[in-house]
# Entry
Amino acid sequence: MRRITLLDHVLALLAQMDLRYQQRFDAQQKALDAALLAAKEAVQTALLAAKEAVIKAEVATENRLTLLNELRSGVATKEQLESAADRLADLKERLDKLEGRSSGATQLWAWLVAAAGVAVAVAAFVAR
# Structure
């Protein structure tokens, strides 16, 4: 039987310790690689979510601007309608005045014709 010397024993212990350290290092390296991969995937997921959020925000902003433009055009249309209503009221007022004048002129002619008729009747009555 071979005798194990102290040096052989110490070398065997050192070899076992080296093996354990190497196994621990390998396990830590695998854990670190897995953590880095998970972090990379998390960053990619976060970037994708941020990109989608930006797209949604852009769409919402575009919709708001479209609605705002429609509102502005509606206000312009309302102002145009009010302006047209004012013009229509002015024209109606002018027409009423014109009708009043023509009505007055018609009445004046009626009175003149009636007065002429009475004058002719009085002249015919006196001439008899």
Notes: The helical segments are 6-127. Residues 19 and 80 are 90 Å apart (CA to CA).
